[in-house]
């Protein structure tokens, strides 16, 4: 028990620069309190004391604003940051070293009793604030889910999902980190699931189409000017000249969205 508590506190201090001491984390972090109480509730639940487990989970919800069903399974060093409004369903499974921010829902879409209705987060998954992960599928190891994403399909290991419905903006890949001597290099932590240079593929496609249209318009203007010099005056075509600067500006605005 105390070993796991020390692990939890160390993980929080590693991931949260606002944590200044072990005592501050132990006394002031609702995510830690919710995880500690869940372990008691889960033990009651698995031992057959269902009502006691639910009562402890409701007390933890009142105390922390974090609702974890006593049937859910949490791994080691799970960090629920801020935590207000987090809801974790009965058949959810959260692996080691996962990070969950405020407003996250790990919910179920099936009404079948006894079925796997809630998602499984493999080790090292980061779920950004306000994200909803709905269904009995798996989010692969080291995956990141952006803030306010609505995920209804599996996410590959190492992938990054954003949007509503969520799209994979960075394809799945093995977790970063290679063996160095006797130790292992851990992947860099990404707060709120933000991945640098992971642009939305839809905005990139639209931006590419606008760039192509701009280039085509420029080529047509050059051709019209050349024909005019040769004596073929095409005033009607010249009058409909496209504002290429405006098109490029629009493409940049879409890419920045």
Offer a concise description of the structure:
This protein has 257 residues and is of the alpha/beta class. It has helices spanning 2-15, 22-28, 30-46, 50-64, 201-229, 235-239, 244-256, and strands at 67-68, 73-74, 79-80, 87-88, 93-94, 99-100, 105-107, 120-121, 126-127, 132-134, 138-139, 144-145, 150-151, 160-162, 167-170, 179-180, 183-184. The relative contact order is 0.07.
Q: Tell me what portion of residues adopts beta-strand conformation.
A: 15-25%
How many helices?
7
Nearest-integer average pLDDT = 83
Largest sheet, described in full? 6 strands, mixed
With strands numbered from the N-terminus, the spatial order across the biggest sheet is: 3-6-9-12-14-15
What percentage of residues falls in helices of 4 or more residues?
A: 25-40%
| Gyration radius, rounded | 26 Å
Shape: elongated
Number of strands: 17
SSE pattern, N- to C-terminal: HHHHEEEEEEEEEEEEEEEEEHHH
Q: Given the helix and strand composition, which structural class is it?
A: alpha/beta
Name of the level-1 CATH class of the largest domain: Mainly Beta
CATH topology name of the largest domain, in short, is UDP N-Acetylglucosamine Acyltransferase, domain 1
Tally of discrete structural domains: 2
Taking the alpha carbons of the first and last residues, their distance comes to: 46 Å
CATH architecture of the largest domain: 3 Solenoid
- Residue windows where pLDDT falls under 50 for at least 5 positions: 176-185
Family: Belongs to the transferase hexapeptide repeat family.
Catalytic activity: L-serine + acetyl-CoA = O-acetyl-L-serine + CoA
EC number: 2.3.1.30
GO molecular function: serine O-acetyltransferase activity
């Amino acid at each position: 028990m105390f070993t796991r508590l020390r692990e939890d506190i160390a993980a929080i201090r590693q991931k949260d620069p606002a944590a200044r001491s072990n005592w501050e984390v132990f006394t002031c972090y609702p995510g830690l309190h919710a995880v500690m109480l869940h372990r008691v509730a889960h033990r009651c639940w698995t031992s057959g004391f269902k009502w006691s487990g639910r009562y402890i989970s409701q007390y933890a919800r009142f105390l922390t604003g974090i609702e974890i069903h006593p049937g859910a399974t949490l791994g080691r060093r799970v960090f629920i940051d801020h935590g207000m409004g987090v809801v974790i369903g009965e058949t959810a499974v959260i692996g080691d070293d996962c990070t969950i921010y405020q407003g996250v829902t790990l919910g179920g879409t099936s009404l079948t009793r006894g079925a796997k209705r809630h998602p499984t987060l493999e080790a090292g998954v980061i779920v950004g604030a306000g994200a909803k992960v709905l269904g009995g599928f798996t989010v692969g190891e080291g995956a990141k889910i952006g803030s306010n994403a609505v995920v209804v399909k599996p996410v590959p290991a190492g992938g990054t999902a954003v949007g509503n419905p969520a799209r994979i903006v960075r394809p799945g890949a093995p977790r970063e980190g290679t063996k160095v001597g006797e130790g292992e290099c851990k992947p860099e932590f990404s707060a709120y699931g933000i991945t640098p240079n992971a642009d939305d593929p839809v905005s990139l496609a639209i931006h590419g189409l606008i760039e192509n249209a701009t280039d085509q318009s420029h080529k047509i203007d050059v051709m019209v000017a050349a024909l005019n010099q040769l004596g073929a005056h095409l005033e009607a075509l010249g009058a409909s000249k496209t504002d290429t600067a405006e098109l490029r500006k629009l493409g940049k605005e879409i890419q920045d969205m």
